[in-house]
Amino acid sequence: MPKQLGIHEYTIYLDKVTHIDAIVIDEAGTPIPAAQCLFLRTNNSGTDSFTKTTDEQGKLHLPFFAGQIALSLTAKGFARQTIELGNLSTPPERLAITLTRGRTGYGQLWAENGQPIPNATIRILATREGLPSILANSSQTLIDDETTTNEQGQFTTNSLAPDRNYQLRITSDGKELEFEDSTFSLKQSPRNITCKSPQ
After folding, report:
1. 135 and 109 part of one domain
2. 119: which DSSP letter?
3. Which DSSP letter does residue 145 get?
4. Is 118 in contact with 151 (CB distance < 8 Å)?
5. Do 136 and 108 fall into the same domain?
6. What is the residue-averaged pLDDT of the chain?
7. Same domain (yes/no): 112, 186
8. Which of 7, 27, 79, 187 is an S-S bond match for 161, by CB 3.0 to 4.6 Å?
9. What is the model's pLDDT at position 65?
10. Closest C-alpha among 56, 16, 10 to residue 33
11. Pick from 68, 98, 128: which residue ends a domain?
């Protein structure tokens, strides 16, 4: 007589996934598509994060996890907006998040031989100064804008906040360029930058 195999019963518990629904708009109430939303959550286990992008109607549908929650949003032509939602155990009601149009800053890149540097990539990075602690203490690289120099080495960014300082990161032909004083702000615009020749 064949040996009967034992039958084991298992109970699997699945956490119910809830969400944060939001719409991202400009000051006139127009939805902003392709805005980047950084979700940060801190609890006793540490801090975790993920990024989502608004759809064509400016809508976000974010998985919700309990803890100290903050949302940090950027979009081309808008200044960064960070919202602290507090220590939440349940998701908030539908959010409407307004982004403010950014201010425009200018600069020009020069090589040590006095020639302009075309087709260089300029990344405008947010500094930690003045940011909520959950964002300031995170390991995220906060890119507020990215642009490219023209044939005269000139660049323009239109995502600056008037009272905020930034850091510049510059690459050309896949190599990061070195230069003195990487800070950038509206007060420093227009900015002439001389880059060292890549080694």
Report:
1. yes
2. T
3. E
4. yes
5. yes
6. 89
7. yes
8. 79
9. 86
10. 56
11. 98
How many Å apart are CA 58 and CA 37, to the nearest integer? Answer: 11
pLDDT in tens, 154-170: 999 999 999 899 999 99
Rg (CA), the chain: 23
Tokens of 74: 């950027």
pLDDT at residue number 15: 46
Same domain, 116 and 150: yes
Which DSSP category does 164 fall into? -
Instruction: Tally the residues of the chain.
Output: 199
Cβ atoms of residues 108 and 147 within 8 Å: no
Q: Is residue 3 part of a domain?
A: no
Residue type, 125: L
102, 77 Cβ separation under 8 angstroms: yes
Range of the domain at 180: 103-195
Tell me what pLDDT residue 82 has: 92
Q: Considering its fold, how many domains does the chain have in total? A: 2
Please give the pLDDT value at position 14: 46
d(CA 182, CA 167) in angstroms, rounded, equals 5
Q: Is residue 8 part of a domain?
A: no
Other CB atoms within a 10 A radius of the CB of residue 131 amount to 18
120 phi/psi in degrees, rounded to 5:
-85, 145
Asked if 86 and 166 sit in the same domain, the reply is no
Question: Long-range contacts of range 176-180, CB-CB < 8 Å, 24 or more positions apart?
Answer: 177/109, 177/117, 177/120
Q: Are residues 67 and 122 both part of a single domain?
A: no
**Residue where a domain stops, chosen among 73, 98, 123:** 98
